[in-house]
Amino acid sequence: MLNRQIVSSLIFIVHFALLNAWTGALTNAIVVGRNGSCKKGDTRVGRPPRMGFSFCVLSLGALYFSWQGVISILPVASILLGIYSRWQEKPLRYGCTAS
């Protein structure tokens, strides 16, 4: 699943770059890095908290350098929520159970 999302994010990087939507292109590049680091395993050993923090800093840096108005906050907010959800110890603890 993560491999497919990496491929689709690479396609979206090209798509957003052709539209001159640099916030979208940069955030998709961060998604590629985030998903590449998550592929190593589902244990917290493979995902130290500092990596999640560094992806958050990269996302905020992408927002700063590609600011095109208030609309630029939306893709970065979604990336930050995705980073937070990937680095949770128990992502299914709020009533969602895997069947």
Question: What do these coordinates show?
Answer:
The chain has 99 residues and is mostly helical. It is 66% helix and 0% strand. It is built from four helices and no strands. It has helices at 2-18, 22-38, 49-65, 73-86. Helix 1 (2-18) runs antiparallel to helix 2, helix 2 (22-38) packs antiparallel against helix 3 (49-65) and helix 2 packs parallel to helix 4. The longest helix has 17 residues, at 2-18.
Keywords:
single chain; 99 residues; mainly alpha; 0% strand; globular; disordered C terminus
Shape: globular
Rg is 14 Å
Strand content: under 5%
Q: What's the order of the H and E elements?
A: HHHH
Q: Which oligomeric state applies?
A: single chain
Q: How many strands in all?
A: 0
Count every helix, treating DSSP H or I runs of 4 or more residues as helices: 4
Biggest sheet overview: none
Low-confidence stretches: 93-99
User: Helical proportion?
Assistant: 55-70%
Q: What do the pLDDT scores average to?
A: 79
Class computed from helices, strands and strand pairing: mainly alpha
